[in-house]
Structure to design on (403 residues):
């Protein structure tokens, strides 16, 4: 257990519902998210709203390498829900419309041809909607990998998994506001600033909520088309298996941060009406090992909540409806954090911070905490919880682009 210095942090911790594997990365996520939720509750109460914001941590809940997000009190691998009687958007969660394209490829170009295409794409990534593109597939944890399909499947012989976002739209741009509060002065002019006991939090209210959500929806479509554009530059024609968001808003009050929203029949990012319950979503373990295509199952059901022992707490907090629309699916194993180590949650002086102590060394930098990726234990946990099911196991074929 991590000591929680104040009643406000204890209340925030009770609004975290963890599905994470029991390890140090999960514990760090819990500690840091406690700060972010305490800040959000403070703002909700200051606005005369119920302090009901919650976090549902997925099986891959972990730290985030985005320093501004982490320092604001938000981690990775789950769903934030602050839906309430008045529209509100918390900006420090930093939605970036990141997602993964899974594309079926009939044949792989010879190595020298593919290498030439990669070099050309890196040098001249092109433009989209009049916006010059910023090649991001060799930065952070973005990549393009090829896998082979199971021989007895109806899938194309090769599957490309391309992981990317829309860095061009994080700052103010030709369309208006940027996505990131710390890169978009125009966005911050519209935000309401709060100094909470644990540090600053900026939110959008009223008409600004709908404007930002429209901005986000456009960016989500832009990012999806951008992934298609990059894939065409590498492989020409292909079959789209899925092209889904795993880091962004699905409504003004729901933020999926590093996990798939389980799609339901709706309008896709490409603008087409389709039945999407059976959409195949990628689950990535590590860079050069097998990957998986999963089908998400609706969650959390009353049966699942009862099995987790959450029903009484959910009823007491009045968040049962939010939990029943969790519908999240881990998109990968998540960052691992090596131990042994001790987690310290420092509440004051503000801003509050989470520290990791390994022996006589101490750090508040999540990038210094990370020790590679977890393994398949996250997938096993996901399946045990009934959040999804494996449709296909994909064998690693080759790395196309990697950091």
């Amino acid at each position: 257990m991590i000591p929680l210095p104040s009643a406000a942090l204890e209340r925030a911790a009770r609004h975290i519902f963890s599905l994470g594997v029991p390890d140090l990365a999960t514990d760090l996520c819990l500690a840091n998210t406690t700060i972010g939720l305490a800040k959000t509750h403070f703002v909700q109460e200051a606005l005369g709203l119920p302090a009901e914001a919650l976090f549902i941590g997925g099986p891959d809940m972990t730290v985030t390498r985005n320093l501004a997000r982490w320092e604001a009190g938000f981690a990775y691998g789950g769903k934030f829900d602050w839906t309430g009687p008045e529209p509100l958007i918390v900006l420090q969660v930093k939605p970036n419309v990141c997602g993964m394209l899974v594309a079926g490829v009939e044949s792989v170009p010879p190595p020298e041809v593919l290498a030439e295409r990669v070099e050309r794409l890196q040098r001249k990534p092109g433009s989209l909607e009049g916006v010059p593109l910023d090649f991001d597939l060799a930065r952070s944890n973005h990549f393009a990998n090829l896998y082979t399909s199971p021989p007895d499947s109806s899938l194309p012989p090769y599957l490309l998994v391309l992981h990317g976002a829309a860095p061009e739209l994080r700052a103010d741009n030709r369309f208006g506001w940027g996505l990131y509060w710390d890169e978009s002065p125009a966005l911050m002019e519209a935000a309401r600033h709060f100094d909470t006991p644990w540090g600053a939090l900026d939110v959008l209210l009223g008409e600004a909520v709908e404007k930002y959500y429209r901005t986000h929806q456009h960016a989500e479509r832009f990012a999806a088309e951008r992934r298609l554009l990059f894939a065409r530059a590498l492989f020409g024609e292909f079959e789209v298996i899925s092209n889904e968001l795993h880091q962004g808003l699905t409504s003004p009050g729901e933020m999926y941060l590093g996990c798939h929203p389980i799609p339901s029949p709706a309008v896709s990012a490409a603008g087409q009406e389709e039945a999407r319950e059976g959409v195949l979503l990628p689950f990535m373990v590590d860079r050069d090992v097998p990957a998986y295509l999963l089908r998400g199952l609706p969650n959390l059901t009353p049966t699942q909540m009862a099995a987790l022992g959450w029903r009484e707490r959910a009823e007491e907090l009045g968040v049962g409806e939010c939990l029943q629309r969790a519908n999240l699916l881990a998109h990968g194993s998540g960052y691992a954090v090596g131990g042994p180590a001790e987690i310290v949650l420092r509440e004051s002086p503000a801003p509050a911070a989470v520290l990791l102590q390994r022996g006589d060394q101490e750090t508040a930098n999540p990038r210094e905490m990370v020790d590679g990726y977890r393994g398949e234990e996250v997938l096993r946990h996901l399946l045990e919880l009934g959040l999804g099911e494996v449709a296909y196991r994909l064998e690693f074929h080759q790395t196309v682009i990697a950091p």
The two ends are 36 Å apart (CA to CA). Residues 265-276 have pLDDT under 50 and may be disordered. Residues 23 and 157 are 37 Å apart (CA to CA).
